[in-house]
Here is the input.
Amino acid sequence: MSRMTQVRTNLIRPALTFLKDRAGSILTIIGISAPVLVGITALAVDVGYWYLSHRVNQTAADAAAIAGAFARLHGKGTTVAAAAKADAERNGVSITGSTVMTVNNPPTSGAYSGEDEAVEVIITMPQQTLLSGVIYSGSITQKNRAVAMVKVQGNACILALSGTASSAVKVWGSTFVEARGCVIGSNSNASNSIDIGGSSSLTAESLWAVGEISGYPSDHVSLTRAPYSDMWALDDPYADLTIPSVSNCQSLGNVNSSVTLNPGTYCDFKFQSKAVVTLKPGTYYIDSGDVAVAGGATVKCSCPNATDGVTIVMTSSHNSYGTVTINGGANMTLNAPTDSNATYKGVLFAGDPKAPSGSTQKFNGGANMNLNGALHFPNSDIQFNGDNSASAVLCTQIIGNTIEFTGNSKVIDDGCKQAGIQPIEIKGVEIVE
Here is the structure.
């Protein structure tokens, strides 16, 4: 063997021996991979923390959007952002320092962009790199977004507007009330906001009360859906109804024969038992006097077109307001106008919103009284006893300060839209994004 060969052999043999020697190799691999394993573990810990933070922040964003939408629902536009912020913090996210919350009403992005009834909440929060900071020095920003929207979830056909009255809606005695397809609502916060008692019976879609419901559950009450108590007040769909000034009313005296009347301003409507009154389509203003229909009298509308109807407006030119009294046995079949151009579309009887409270409107015609339209008396108490069984009746809507059913009554809510009546909307809030 040459000297050069010997040198090569002496150099290569130790290297080969080292490569073939497995002793200590695991330690070598661990030494090489340890930083990677530490980095992965640190990142896993931080990602878990970020995921938990994301869930907390998303819950807060959802709650904030819902709170903002409820503020929007209740007409508190200036407090939408404040309500959203309060609920975000109530759900564990402090909106301070580098944590920023943006509230947009309407939303500025997404499917509901520009929708006035929607509230968008975006929470932006920087996230710290804890253990993973050893391998990543950049910053992490987390963004959570939610959109909640005010949506109509149903309609009522009976609404008592009083905010405090006991028995604001009253079904008592031997009364039987069938409110087909109808939610009965009361804005009163009383413990007996809706009061059902005695031997009375009630069938309805559901009940909705700001306060409590007395007399339910009961074998005498049949509801399609469970009732709602401790809820928010429902809006009066005719709250903006305006009634013009009137003058020069026409006096009819006590009518006890056949007569056809044209729209105009009348001092009163007093129809005796033998009266047969035909009303031509249009608006009838009653200036300071009463509407009194005796048992046996007939009052009907001459309405040849499907959109024809009448509206009877109880108003006053000198601050003295009359009342409506329809007695049992009165034959009364009237429709409100459904024409979109009608001044009082969908309204059959209207009480002037300027009238003082305390008066009572009595619609007690019984089985022969069929009223198709809205009875709107925001400051008056309403007594109602009507059958509304005629096939032409699509919808009877009753809105008053308080409402009492005094006899066997049927209220139909199957075709309010077709009848041109503004719905009493039951609105709620949903997360939509």
Notes: The CA atoms of residues 26 and 32 lie 10 Å apart.
